[in-house]
Amino acid sequence: MTRPKTKILVDGGDPQETRRIEELLGFVDGQTTNPSLIAKNPHIKELVASGHKLSNREEMDEYKKIVQTISPLVGDAGVSIEVFSDERTMAQEMLDQGREMFSWIPNAYIKYPCTAEGLRAAQMSVEQGMRINVTLCFSQQQAAAVYAATKGTKQPAYVSPFVGRLDDIGQNGMDVVRNIKRMFSEGDGHVLVLAASIRSLEHLLYCFALENELVTVPAKVLELWANSNFLMPDKQFQYKASGRSIPYEEIDLERPWETFDIQHELTRKGIEKFAADYRATLSRPA
Q1: Catalytic residue among 111, 154, 181, 273, which?
Q2: Cα dist. 95→74, 111, 193, 244, 265 in Å?
Q3: pLDDT (mean) for 259-281
Q4: What is the rounded distance in angstroms from the CA atom of residue 72 to the CA atom of residue 167?
Q5: 42, containing H or E segment
Q6: Which helix (H) or strand (E) holds 78?
Q7: Fewer CB within 10 A of the end CB, N or C, for the chain?
Q8: What is the pTM of this model?
Q9: What is the tens place of the pLDDT at every residue in 61-86?
């Protein structure tokens, strides 16, 4: 196979799945995890099904075991570990979790939501030398805020635009990836675009065609790619979007992050879903 320029991460919370994909592809550059994926981990599901709900501390300890098993299986794109948060969680609480999670493995990236408190936590984290990934991004304005909040990071930060969830509301989610890449081409390169919520082989191939820096992909889509004999887009490749196009915005990346419009309904809904899946494993509400 011709290895793509785009780094491939597995989007999942099961180390056995990561091993399987590494054997299938011959490599895995990294992994992304989140509370919903951890709740689907076979061991966690068995615990919950047996009637053993976890304490907050047990949840953190189980998450730690999972990412410590995944860590040596992946390459230099690292393992993204998401803090547990809802709309009430303040930046300091996210940062405290992030500090602990960052100590779990040598290739950790800490995921914060693309909210005001998440961006404050990200800003404080990069000041302390942590690698970060700002997730649940759905707009250029949000990505510009990530750029501004993470200036001075010692290693490139990630921003994760969610393609499939924009498709779900009738928009062309890949436009956001393309628009953010275009916007960042005018910047200093300290933020890399990690395309997320990949739902199809066509999504993946378009990421390759764009030469996007990173893409995180569920195992079932990577298996489709392998079954296509690792198809790569040629010069005639055209992505056929079903949703409305998202126009490019001219944005000044030198503005303070607080001046950007970071509100997005899908970010709010994403946080609610992650929080609900996290709480479903707990012995009492978080």
Answers
A1: 111
A2: 25, 10, 22, 37, 24
A3: 94
A4: 34
A5: helix 42-49
A6: strand 78-82
A7: N
A8: 0.95
A9: 999 999 999 999 999 999 999 999 99
For residue 90, CA distances in Å to 66, 110, 117 come to 26, 16, 6
Query: Tokens in use for 278?
Result: 């996290």
52 pLDDT more than 90: no
Q: How many CA atoms lie within 13 A of 159 on its CB side?
A: 31
SS3 label, residue 10: strand
In DSSP terms, which residues pair with 109 in a beta bridge? 80
Strand partners, 8: 215
For residue range 115-164, what is the model confidence (pLDDT) as tens digits?
999 999 999 999 999 999 999 999 999 999 999 999 999 999 999 999 99
Of 179, 172, 140, the C-alpha closest to 262 is: 140
Q: Residue 82 corresponds to which amino acid?
A: E
Q: How far, in Å, CA of 250 to CA of 167, rounded? A: 23
In the numeric block, the tokens 């707990």 are attached to: 282
Place of tokens 């250029």: 140
Helix (H, G, I), strand (E, B) or coil at 46: helix
Distance CA 216, CA 99 (A): 23
Contact criterion met (CB below 8 Å) for 197 and 162: yes
Q: Both tokens of residue 30?
A: 């990294």
**Residue 111 appears among annotated catalytic residues:** yes
Query: CA distances (Å), 118 to each of 39, 125, 155, 212, 265, in order?
Result: 22, 10, 19, 24, 16
Q: Which residues contact 20 (CB under 8 A, 6 or more apart)?
A: 219
